[in-house]
Amino acid sequence: MTSAKSLKGSRRKPSKIRLILAIIIILAGLGLVFAALTKLVPGLLGGASLSGQLAATVNGEEITMMDLDQAYDGLSEQYQYFMTKEDYLSQMIDQVLLKQEAVKRGVTVTDDEADQNLKSFLLQNGITAEELTELLENQSINYEELIRISKEQLLIQKLFEQEIRQKVNVSDEEVLAYYENNSEQFIQESTTTLRHILFSVNYDNKTLSETRDMAESVLDLVAPDKSNFCDLAAEYSDDVQSKDDCGEYEFPTSQLPTEFQVWAENTNMGGVGIVETDFGTHVVMLIDQTTEPESLPFEDVKDQIVAALRSQKERDAFADFLSGVRDSATIVNYLEEREEANESEAISGDAIFEYEEVAPVPEGVEEEASEVAPEETLPADEVAEPVVEEEIVVEEPVAEETVAEEIVVEEPVVEETEAATNTEVTILSDDDLIACLADKKATLYGAAWDSSTAKQKALFGDDISKFEYVECADPADYRKQTEICETAGILAYPTWRIEGVNYLGIYTVKQLADLAGC
Question: In sequence order, which residues have a C-beta less than 8 Å from that of residue 257 and are 6 or more positions away?
Fold first, then answer.
């Protein structure tokens, strides 16, 4: 059995993976939303300017296709699944409008304020300046760019504070009426309070057996009166969120993980023991259990109701405010106009080549607008797929004369050894992938109010019932997160958790199976 001394000596810092993921979230949250807030040169050339092809102009301020492509391509695949490039451009237009409106209304942000805002954000997320610099070395952005982004973020936040938050009020009558009309929301169900010391399989790639040996060693150190449990949690627990609070959590009994529920049902108050979960091995102490649901007094939930009603009013007021700003603005959406023009020409039979459906160009084969690929005939046994039978004639404008030539798309030649290997690959069906993910206990964390969670469930259809779903929204305050989700490290919704690793966003069955190694 491992001694307590050796336990402490074996601890190392956690993997940098979570740090990198956290910083990526920062870059996405600060950067992508405001990526288009740049040039102030009007576009005068009908969708093109000296700075490149335009996606839109907002009161003369340009958003180029390069701006849009770079920002949109930076989104993960799961977000691109439910947000089209057109949707994202609309969001970028709104950001430009809000920045312009803030300037118009005299809102200002100093460089020092922007710098402090960014530093506070990093501090809140436990990221040092050195760690940020280390990651930025591999990114196409520097600290000065982050300061610029932070400044624009603060500009819009100050506008919101000035024009929305300071003008929204919630009356006592509204709060009381909500409490009386929604009494079912304020029922406190039975709860279970536990303290735990976690030995995680995510630290140092320990096996479950190794974590159990370590837990048994610490269990032997727990005093008969349990008076040293908090000290042991602070010293040994891998749960950084709770180790300084005696490792204590209060769960609604219906949300208590099954392993803890079974143990608690067979343990007296104040009892200690060992529980194994997907996270590792826990030394657990039962603190309290309530058995009957009870109504929460109005005074206990008044502040939560005020916050919820204020938030709803602010959202409604902001939507009206943004709509008014849009109505008074001059917005030209060239992306939308080009799509409409191509649809119109396609209907009339004069489709533009840029949007014509043609055979896909294989990876590795580059196309150039001013050149036409020479016609070649490949041996039949080397062609991966048949060449498109119909000839595609493209009229390419040339400086001296117009040339119309036949385009034959070259298909990649598959080497014999590669082809042989490919024949040995087994392609699993969606049913097989679903079964594999279920075996790995893939768990979906989400919130009832979150539209992305709903889209993730809809994407899986009836198969979603084969996975455990954890509701993270606190029924008493939708803005809060339940402790079980905080413990699991859920940062946003939806999040999949597979074998102790969190994957944020919407995934297809195939994408999720790839991540899980199915």
Answer: 277, 484
